[in-house]
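Sharing a chain and its predicted structure for anyone who wants a worked example. Both blocks are below, sequence first, tokens second.
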Amino acid sequence: MKKFNIAVVGLGYVGLSNAVLLAQYNNVLAIDLDEKRLKLIAQKKSPINDDLISDYLATKPLSIDTESTENVSYSDADYVIISTPTNYDETTNYFDTKSVETVISNILRDSNKAIIIIKSTVPVGFTERMKEKFNYKNIIFSPEFLREGRALHDNLYPSRFVIGGKSEECKVFADLLKSGALKEDIPIFYMSSTEAEASKLFANAYLAMRVVFFNELDSYSSIHELDSKSIIESIGADPRIGDYYNNPSFGYGGYCLPKDVKQLRANYKDVPNVLISSLVEANSTRKDFIAESIINKNPKVVGIYRLLMKSGSDNFRESSIQGVMKRVKAKGINVVIFEPLLEESEFFYSKVVKDLSSFKNMSDIIVTNRMSNELNDVADKVFTRDIFHAD
């Protein structure tokens, strides 16, 4: 197979996992604003928490170079993958897509032949608007369906590829992804970019819906003194429902689900709906319920064990435990935090305790979204809704 020159812009979970995947058989230029991140990759070290990425960078013969966003030229690129962050803007009710638009502009400054692949999550209809805005047809949307901490694994063994286009360039790109993967017989769905954008948002909305469903089941069970685990296991035995993605939590969080559900809700502004809009409210209601359950125990000091969105992640963004923590603090209760990834001595005006033993001793209740073996010796203090000890 021909070797392509592929530039990847934005080296978070999506970008770096794609860069590593494609660098097995192509020449990849990994691009980011963060010089520290670039230095680590150049040293064959992963800047994100993903064991397979670390292993591949250290041991595999990858053709991967690094360059800063400010100095890069796209003139030699056959394909450019854009995986820069698009955060949801509460003011405009849409994703802030400036980073993606800036990269497209920079690519077209240097090249009139590069195939542009957008992997950043964007509003429905965005790619078609970019084609019109830049008068350039070779812009394709191809979403990712990755788990934090297992991003490369999910690229090596993908559930499917979704390609927003049916041109020959789209088929070549699908072949590039397929050639880097270890799984065989990967389903490939070719559709319009707008349909691919909707596919991404609806997939994440469905996952959020499952989280909401099992959390509300757990809230009901808790109030009525029922065994959540028994109920969940019994309904999960129905193959139409399944025994997956069913572990109660403090709410959905992380990079994708909160912003994607809000974006889908915004795309529904002219469409009658109840369910999609309710997912946002239901997630907030669950945090209210969890916080109230903690407050009702009348603790003087609440210890927050880890701020991470889930086990195996290094991501704090919109983690549900932060929402719980802020609600508890609003009642005037003293909150302390144990989070080894934090270098600061305070987080949101709460003390960060570096020593785990001291943290355990000073906390009347220890709140954790997911149980850890580190807390087994103080299990009587722990508040969690983690039933199955899984994410």
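Comments welcome. The first strand starts at residue 5 and ends at 9.
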